[in-house]
Each structure stands twice: as structure tokens, then as C-alpha cells.
Amino acid sequence: VATDLLSGSFIDMLYNAMALASLGITRLDGLQGNVAIPKKSAGATAYWVAESGSPTESQPTLAQVTMSPKTIGAYTDYSRRLMLQSSLSVEQFVRNDLAQALALGLDLAGIHGTGSSNQPTGILATSGIGDVAGGTNGDAPTWADIVGLESAVSVANAAIGNLAYLTNAKVRGKLKTTEKASSTGQFVWGDGATPLNGYNAVVSNQVSSTLTKGTADSICSAILFGNWADLILGLWGGLEILTDPYTGSTSGTVRVVALQSADYGVRHAGSFAAMHDALTT
Known about the structure:
Layout: E1 26-28, E2 35-42, E3 61-67, E4 70-78, H1 80-85, H2 90-112, E5 130-131, H3 143-155, E6 163-167, H4 169-176, E7 200-203, E8 211-213, E9 216-227, E10 231-248, E11 253-266, E12 272-279
Parallel strand pairs: 1-10, 5-12, 6-7
Antiparallel strand pairs: 2-3, 4-11, 6-9, 8-9, 9-12, 10-11
């Protein structure tokens, strides 16, 4: 019995959902040089004075948010025989796959970028963001933890703009079965457009579920809350895709290379808070 190859019904793999695209982050496109955005980090101080007295001199403090291009890349080689025998458009298939890989990698860096090894600094590695700790060895997230994330941002005077939570599917499942208080029948993760503490909540497995806290090795998840407009994505040029038929020309191999230069910056660290040790099992 012959087998028909239904290339028009090609089944793609299941990818993580993009996390940051729907949260309203700020994009700066078409950058060329390194970027330094000035900001005021502290203001002048007011003093009460006696009759004919003079206040003490004070000055605002200025700082900068800096960004410089970091490059993410990937490449794929495909053979001459694959190109001859496939009923798919091989080069377009490879281009789409590389573009998807870079988009997910760039998205992931905005959350988990370490700031080292040529990576941007993501939110979770940004110094000064709010911190809500579950426990020495992690803990199951509670209603108090979710409110604590909101409170940390509010205490920093940053509870404005595109406020939303971000976490992964494991945490959502846990919070859907976690009551706000015992025997109330009211669960932490509710229904509707604003299911978590009255705010929008985005779910993506780009948010790690393999973090470590104490003896909770590689089983902790992150939960983030903040004003996502204060996360800046800078892009130097667009996505570059190069087809190279020369490197493997003796064997007929074609190489497709994809590159993108980008960086992230945070306007105010206090605009974000995170729980790094949420347990879901």
C-alpha cells in the first residue's frame, strides 16, 4: 500500500507561548549606537525652616539606563538530497524555524537573561526588583504571596501603567486549586479577563519551572508582577537571515544563518517584583 506524503498538512512542533509580546513592553527599533537613557533616581529634599532661616541645599540625582547590542543567532545546514527529494519548501521551512527560535530566545532573555555570557539582563536578574520569598526551600504560592507581589511594586510607587502578572502553566494550575482562605470556595486564580488579584495574568512556559531554592532542586517556578511598560526592548536592525551555499559546496550542503542584535533595559527596578521559589507539586 503506497504512502502519500501530505506536506500541505505538515504538523509543526509545540512551542512555548511568547511571554512578553502581549504585556505591553516598550520597543525601541532601528537603533545604531549604544543607548543611554537619562533618568532621575532621587529628587530634592524639602525642609521646614524658622523665620529668616534657610533650607539645606539639596539636589536631584541623575542616573542612566544603558543598553548595548547583544547578538543571538542560530544556523541550520540542509543537504542537496533533502532539497531535491522533499515536497516541502525546505529553505522557507528552515527560515521559519530559525526565526521562531530567535524570537523565543529573545523573549526568554527578557525574563531569565543572566547579564553574563553575552546575554541581556532579564527582569529576574535585575538588581533591586521586589522579592517575595516562599521559604528556605521554596513553598506553595498563596494568596498572601500574590498580594505581596502587588504590594512590593506599590510600595515602590510603581503601581502604574501596564500592570500584570506573568507565570507558567504549572503555577496557574496550582493557583486554580488553592483557596484564598480555608473553606471559602474562592480560589486564588479566578475567571474572566483579570483572573489574578484583579489584574491581567499571562501564562507562558517561557517562565522557568526548574529553578532551585535550598533543597528544592530544579522544581521551583517564578511568578512576576509589574508595570511591563518599564521593560525596554532595544533592537539594532532587523532579523538577518543569510543563505550560504558556499561553506558546504563540495557536498551540496546549504547553510541558513539567522542573527538578531538586541538588549533589554528596565526603567525602574521597583516597577517589578518576583517570587522565585513557587512550588507546584
